[in-house]
Design a protein that fits this description.
The complex is a heterotrimer. Chain A is of the alpha+beta class. Chain A has eight helices and seven strands, in the order ββαβββββααααααα. Chain A has helices at about 35-45, 120-125, 145-155, 165-170, 175-185, 195-210, 220, 230-245, and strands at about 5-10, 20-25, 70, 75, 95-100, 110, 115. Chain B has helices at about 10, 35-60, 65-80, 90-120, 135-140, 140-160, 170-180, 185-210, 220-245. The relative contact order of chain B is 0.11. Chain C has a five-stranded parallel beta sheet. Chain C has a five-stranded antiparallel beta sheet with strand order 11-15-14-12-13. In chain C, a hairpin with a 5-residue loop joins β7 (about 200-210) and β8. Classes of the chains: A alpha+beta, B mainly alpha, C alpha+beta. At the A-C interface, α1, α2 and α3 of A face α3, α5, α6, α11 and α12 of C. The complex binds flavin-adenine dinucleotide (FAD), protoporphyrin IX containing FE (2 copies), iron/sulfur cluster, FE3-S4 cluster and FE2/S2 (inorganic) cluster (FES). FE2/S2 (inorganic) cluster (FES) binds near residues 57, 58, 61, 62 and 66 of chain A.
């Protein structure tokens, strides 16, 4: 297969960027999209041009490093797919593929397709955890967790922190990421003690960096883990409760 | 909370778009400091709007029952609550609620819109290929103001009578008919109501998300509700000017 | 160099408890004065940094990733072992200990392994409390499954993403400390050298990958938790950026490197689909619980798998190992697959795989149950190969996966450099010559949550009153200069070949000579070829761009340069070990029916290698292994 790639090149955060066109020939349909970028990069190095910088690591859709706009979609076409899991058999021979970095004020560009997603860490830092220091844990089976609850928490916990939700959202909102982490913990019995403090802190930190959600629902289709916007609704509910709950009564059912 | 000073170069490169101290205002005012809180406000004020628009449309259906019925209904609005409340007292209460709701709704909408624009200062250079975000959801910020302008024009026309060709206070049926005998008015009304329909189609679904009403047993109904609701409102409202224009109501 | 494992005296059951009791403690008010550097924020590093932070130490954590959540631990699929005996199937701390020592083919330290088994129980408690959403029974209790090489169900899992969930737990605990101000997190920063002053670890020199700036950081102690070196093979299941540089640089500064040749080849990976292959994807071993492995009996059987009748299939593992069947340990399963493929019975377009067939269990358990258990793995497989495992059997083949070898550490996880501790896959660990499935996560977390916080504290207690060596000390300055020189050399070489092309070539040598089977001639050839390739690398590598910004090729150059030296050490270690054990299979040493033949008389030791300078062969030190509780026997899974 042969492809024409239009790739966004930008040497630094403040430099001017533009699309450059590259040819990628002799591509097998079994190759992943990142392997095509590898091929382009090898050719670029041969030709004495700096290779395209892009983040990647696990190449199996779990580390959340990779991520770029491919043909106007975060992580490219297909649902539940990270860029590294995008295989060339999804495209047609001869296609032109346009690749652009993720754009968000919270994700300043580093170089070419690499962006800085550390704002997501700030959200987790603000409350995306259960405060239990090493050694302070009770016996694991002491608190039963209904299977449906464990499954629902796992659905949310699958988030890989790639930021595709932000990239895809017309508002640049990080609602799906934040809500996924928050609900993973808020759904579990272990997470109840800090549930409302967590909701408050995570939402308010999120809002310092990201846009707000108007329920476009684009994020859940971009999300490589297919996390549902249900979690956003739960988060909105928890946030309201956080602001109005008499927390002295939290110990009661 | 964004840290006071960055602890690494990675962190230093990221500028918050707003550095807002936690609101110290008393509940529920503190809600309005956050975007999620503003969305609650939009949803609640949106619901007030939905209730109004439903009542208004249903009430206006009396047009088809003739002048006496409609005028009687309009008079009923003014004498609502009699003999306990003075004339128009309840009406003014409702008007105040509606006005406050509209102001809050519009203010929240614009304030979130500007935040969202700051959240993506550099737009995508290639064409976006949306999957879920639809025409309605992406045009809320346009259909909203269209509705706002329409409300203003509509009040000038049928409440204050300033732009009505032959405004007679209390003769609601007459006022409506003379207004819709102008083709431009018909077009404006129809267009505005189609815009309203889009706004409602997204809004009447979206508000459930905003206030966290999400239950697997009901989720399928949310979209259906929004569709039926928006269609019903548009159909009802659009029927009035068209009926007049076609001479069905005169 | 003197190797002292510092194993305390006493019965093994109480060793760790007694040892902890005997440790010196640091007064809470003094903890803040001690500065600890943690390199790496995978399971081991994040857990250690978080726990040390919770204790009140002043921690700085470096990672080359943009966030700790990206560490390679995130990719672990199958599960984590713990001796909880929730299944009531006869498990116990002692059995986990026994299985691990036996699984490791009697090349691990009993005391360490016993502690690992004991701690495993606490790990699960800790993780559940952190909110790790492990699989549950309908009654709400934790669910277990069995995993390669053992006959009890002791593996806890979170769908096919156990490593992800455990790492997120550790990452979240770490971020809580970052928020609390006890840990300073420095992402996208790579350690390029260890600084040793007066024989003690004094700090590190790091490069900021965004700005290219090289800086020194000093501390009272340094913890290395930088993962494994499987990527020396180029193609492996490891993440693309996983590398050995931190460990290797520490080795060059005096830390002994142990058992380098003990590398694990994982039996269930998706076979390469061509030359372009950039990495290999693991299909969790748990699949072997319900999948049956087979090849056609006839070479070159061109029929589609579903067309091949039972009579023409060879379920070779079930045939040769009736009691363990498809669940034999990884090394055994891998070699068996290699032999089938070498014998021309490989399947798939490139004839480079064997079948892993679910038809029978789909029939027995139903499609839904199989989907429930392996849905995401099936989906992952289909995405990569375009084939649906519900319809046609998976194709699998072994691939490099894990490094049992690593920096030598004593019972306290302290390397031969005082003040430098090593945790997780980076140390030579508790797995001997072969790691059992679901035991690496356990070890990483045991090291990070429970062992290092105690042993590092003990070391620090002895340093009360001392200040970290200032970073303008000559040792730091000269290390910085060295890095500047190497950078200049790389940037100025202006050769013709990309770093990746060298890495691929090295990987090919490694796989051909040091893959599933090794022999003297091959190893000697490797010892000739690798230095030649390394020299060519320094002559002909081509790195574009600048050194003072993000430069992927430059990052890789530093890593690949170290892989060359490590590759050589692996060959040297493999050559020295004239026996077959675990992941190390010397063709010369096998039984009549092709099983590994250990030589306990001569090789019951840890081979710890001491760096002697560039271009010089390392010297060997032996740490003898004694077995008082599990008596060495030929492993048998028949
Ligand atoms: C595909 C796959 C599946 C697996 N499945 C299982 C399983 O089911 N069960 C199981 O028990 N084990 C499994 N393992 C093994 C297990 O995941 C690893 O052994 C373990 O996670 C290693 O953890 P770690 O903390 O030692 O290192 P890693 O998670 O690799 O972390 C290394 C850290 O060090 C940092 N680092 C490295 N070098 C430097 C440097 N020079 N400077 C700064 N930072 C540096 C990295 O950024 C990273 O943060 C699997 C492994 C693979 C490859
Ligand atoms: C009186 C007529 C109006 C009604 C009935 C109405 C109703 C609604 C409703 C129900 C929502 C959904 C709220 C939510 O999702 O939480 C909504 C959203 C919105 N409205 Fe209105 N609205 C009206 C007028 C306006 C006006 C005049 C504007 C002008 C700016 C506006 C702008 C918006 C915007 C931008 C949204 C998107 C936010 C969202 O989807 O939540 N609306 N509206
Ligand atoms: C085409 C359909 C519509 C018709 C025929 C119509 C008709 C009228 C009439 C006759 C009045 C005056 C009632 C009175 O004075 O007693 C009125 C008032 C009003 N209408 Fe409408 N209307 C329509 C659509 C709308 C829409 C879509 C909105 C809002 C989005 C709206 C908002 C209002 C408001 C706010 C008032 C003022 C009520 C008050 O007196 O407080 N109308 N309308
Ligand atoms: S919610 Fe989905 S899209 Fe967003 S960061 Fe997590 S995995 Fe990525
Ligand atoms: S796309 Fe954006 S608007 Fe909300 S539902 Fe998703 S965050
Ligand atoms: S490279 Fe890890 S998710 Fe794509």
């Amino acid at each position: 297969m042969d492809f024409t790639l239009k790739v966004w090149r930008q040497s630094g955060p403040d430099a001017r960027g533009q699309f450059e066109t590259y040819q990628a020939g002799g591509i097998s349909e079994d190759m992943s999209f990142l392997e095509v970028l590898d091929v382009v990069n090898e050719n670029l190095i041969d030709a004495g041009t700096e290779p395209i910088a892009f983040d990647h690591d696990c190449r199996e859709g779990i580390c959340g490093s990779c991520g770029m706009m491919v043909n106007g979609q975060a992580h490219g076409p297909g649902t539940r797919t990270a860029t590294c899991q995008l295989h060339m058999r999804t495209f047609k021979d001869g296609d032109t593929i346009t690749v652009e970095p993720w754009r968000s004020a919270a994700f300043p560009l580093v170089r070419d397709l690499t962006v800085n997603r550390s704002a997501l860490d700030r959200i987790v830092e603000s409350g995306g955890f259960i405060s239990v220091s090493t050694g302070a844990a009770p016996e694991a089976n002491l608190i039963p967790v209904p299977k449906v609850v464990a499954e629902a928490a796992m659905d949310a916990a699958e988030c890989i922190g790639c930021g595709a939700c932000v990239a895809a959202c017309p508002n640049g909102a990080a609602q799906l990421f934040t809500a996924a982490k928050m609900q993973h913990l808020n759904l579990l019995p272990q997470g109840q003690s800090e549930r409302y403090q967590r909701a408050e802190r995570m939402v308010e930190t999120m809002e310092e960096y990201f846009g707000s959600c108007t329920n476009h629902g684009e994020c859940q289709y971009a999300c490589p883990k297919g996390i549902s916007i249900d979690v956003i609704a739960y988060m909105n509910r928890d946030y309201m409760a956080a602001k109005s709950k008499n927390r002295k009564l939290l110990g009661q059912k | 909370m964004a840290p006071a000073s960055p602890r690494s170069t990675v962190e230093a490169a990221v500028e918050p778009i707003s550095r807002r101290p936690a609101s110290t205002a008393p509940w529920p005012l503190n809600l309005y400091a956050s975007a999620v809180g503003k969305k609650w406000v939009m949803a609640v004020t949106g619901v007030i709007g939905l209730l109004f628009i439903t009542g208004h449309m249903v009430g206006n259906l009396k047009i088809y029952l003739g002048p006496t019925e409609l005028n009687h209904y309009a008079e009923g609005l003014r004498t609502f609550g009699a003999p306990f409340a003075p004339r128009e007292a309840i009406l003014w209460v409702i008007r105040s609620v509606l006005t406050v709701a509209l102001v809050l709704h519009v203010h929240a909408a614009f304030s979130l819109w500007t935040t969202n624009r700051r959240a993506r200062p550099v737009a995508y250079a290639s064409r976006r290929d949306y999957i879920a975000a639809n025409y309605a959801s992406r045009t809320m910020i346009w259909t909203g103001p269209i509705v706002l302008l329409f409300i203003f024009a509509h009040l000038m026309d049928l409440t204050w009578g300033a732009t009505n060709p032959d405004f007679v206070s209390g003769e609601v049926y007459h006022n409506v008919v003379v207004s819709f005998q102008r083709y431009p008015a018909v077009i404006i009304y129809v267009a505005a109501n189609v815009a309203l329909g889009f706004h409602l189609w997204h809004g009447a679904w979206s508000l459930f998300q905003s206030i966290g009403v999400n239950n697997p047993y009901l989720n399928g109904l949310r979209r259906a509700f929004a569709t039926v609701f928006a269609l019903a409102i548009v159909a009802g409202n659009v029927s009035f000017p068209i009926a007049v224009a076609l001479g069905i109501v005169s | 160099m003197e190797l002292n494992a510092h194993i305390p005296e006493g019965p093994i059951e109480t060793l760790w408890d007694n040892h902890r009791f005997n440790m010196r403690l640091v007064n809470p008010a003094n903890k803040r004065r001690f500065h600890v550097i943690v390199i790496g924020t995978g399971l081991a590093g994040a857990a250690a940094a978080a726990s040390l932070g919770e204790l009140g130490y002043n921690v700085t954590a470096f990672t080359y990733h943009d966030s700790p959540r990206r560490a390679h631990s995130i990719a672990a699929q199958g599960g984590i072992n713990a001796a909880k005996n929730y299944a009531n199937d006869g498990d116990s701390v002692h059995r986990l200990f026994y299985d691990t020592v036996k699984g490791g083919d009697f090349r691990s330290r009993e005391a360490n392994v016993y502690r690992l088994a004991q701690t495993s129980v606490n790990i699960i408690d800790q993780c559940v409390a952190q909110g790790v959403p492990f699989a549950r029974e309908y009654g709400g209790a934790l669910e277990n499954r069995s995993f390669g090489g053992v006959q009890v169900s002791r593996t806890f899992y979170a769908r096919g993403q156990t490593g992800q969930q455990l790492l997120l737990g550790a990452y979240q605990a770490l971020m809580r400390q970052v928020d609390a101000g006890t840990v300073r997190l420095v992402p996208r920063t790579e350690m390029l050298d260890l600084v040793v002053v007066d024989g003690k670890a004094a700090g590190v020199v790091v490069r900021d990958l965004i700005t290219g700036e090289v800086s020194s950081h000093s501390a009272h102690a340094v913890v290395l938790a930088t993962g494994g070196y499987g990527n020396v093979y180029y193609l492996s299941t490891n993440a693309k950026k996983s590398n050995a540089t931190a460990a290797w640089r520490a080795h060059r500064r005096g830390a002994a490197f142990a058992n380098a040749c003990f590398t694990q080849i994982h039996p269930t990976c998706i076979p390469a689909s061509g030359e372009h292959q950039s990495k290999l994807t693991l299909m969790s071993e748990s699949l072997r619980n319900d999948g049956r492995i087979w090849v056609p009996k006839d070479q070159g059987d061109g029929r589609a798998p579903n067309q091949i009748p039972e009579a023409d299939r060879d379920y070779y593992l079930e045939r040769a190992y009736p009691s363990f069947g498809n669940l034999v340990p990884r090394d055994v399963a891998s070699r068996a697959a290699k032999r089938q493929v070498d014998a021309g019975r490989g399947v798939g377009p490139l004839k480079n795989g064997v079948y892993l067939d679910f038809a029978e269990s789909i029939g027995r358990l139903g499609r839904n149950e199989i989907f429930e258990r392996y849905g995401n793995l099936f989906e992952m497989y289909e995405r990569i190969t375009g084939e649906d495992p519900f319809e046609t059997p998976m194709r699998i083949y072994p691939a490099t996966h894990y490094a049992m070898g690593g920096l030598w550490v004593d019972y306290n996880l302290q390397s031969t450099i005082p003040g430098m501790f090593v945790g997780g896959e980076a140390n030579f660990s508790d797995h001997g010559a072969n790691r059992l499935g679901a035991s690496a996560l356990m070890q990483g977390l045991a090291d990070g949550y429970f062992v290092l916080p105690a042993t590092v504290g003990d070391y620090l207690a002895g340093m009360l009153g001392s200040q970290p060596v200032p970073t303008d000390h000559e040792a730091f300055k000269s290390a910085e200069r060295e890095i500047a020189d190497r950078t200049k050399q790389f940037m100025g070489t202006n050769g013709k070949r990309s770093v990746d092309s060298f890495h691929k070539e090295l990987g090919k040598i490694m796989w051909d000579r040091m893959g599933m089977e090794r022999d003297r001639a091959g190893l000697e050839a490797a010892l000739r070829d690798i230095p030649m390739l390394r020299e060519e690398f320094y002559r002909d590598v081509k790195i574009l761009g600048t050194a003072d910004g993000l430069n992927d090729s430059l990052e890789k150059a530093f890593r690949v340069a170290d892989f060359f030296e490590l590759g050589e050490l692996i060959a040297r270690d493999a050559l020295n070990r004239e026996e077959s054990c675990g992941g190390h299979f010397r063709v010369e040493h096998q039984t009549a029916d092709g099983e590994a033949e250990r030589d306990d008389e001569q090789f019951s030791y840890v081979a710890a290698w001491e760096w002697k300078g560039p271009g010089q062969p390392q010297t060997l030190h032996q740490e003898p292994l004694t077995f008082n509780y599990v008596h060495p026997a030929q492993r048998s899974y028949k």
